[in-house]
Hints:
Order of helices and strands: HHHH
Number of strands: 0
Shape: globular
Low-confidence stretches: 13-23
Number of helices: 4
Distance between the termini: 50 Å
Mean pLDDT: 81
Helix content: 55-70%
Amino acid sequence: MKRLCLTTICALLATTALADETPAGMPEVEKIRFCERVRDHAIQTLYNRDRGSPIKLYAEDGSNGPRIVNVIIRHIYAEPKITTPQDAETYGRQTCYQMMGIAGAE
Length: 106
């Protein structure tokens, strides 16, 4: 009886541990929400570039967030073809989706 209970508990714990996490460690919904916030950074970067402000990068700590945002900021400052907030928004969101491994999010 103890063996059956222990086996059942272990099976339940293993199932919930595997079901909650994606291989990258972040659920898809959180990745999509993160990319929506990154989109806002892209639009702000376009405004900063158009005002002539110097480039402001985030300190990278090894996580995906600052690395992705810095890639987007550098590209927006370097690419003169990004001229509208919609261009910056689209570029920021698509780049984030690609770097986070989100397939078919749009």
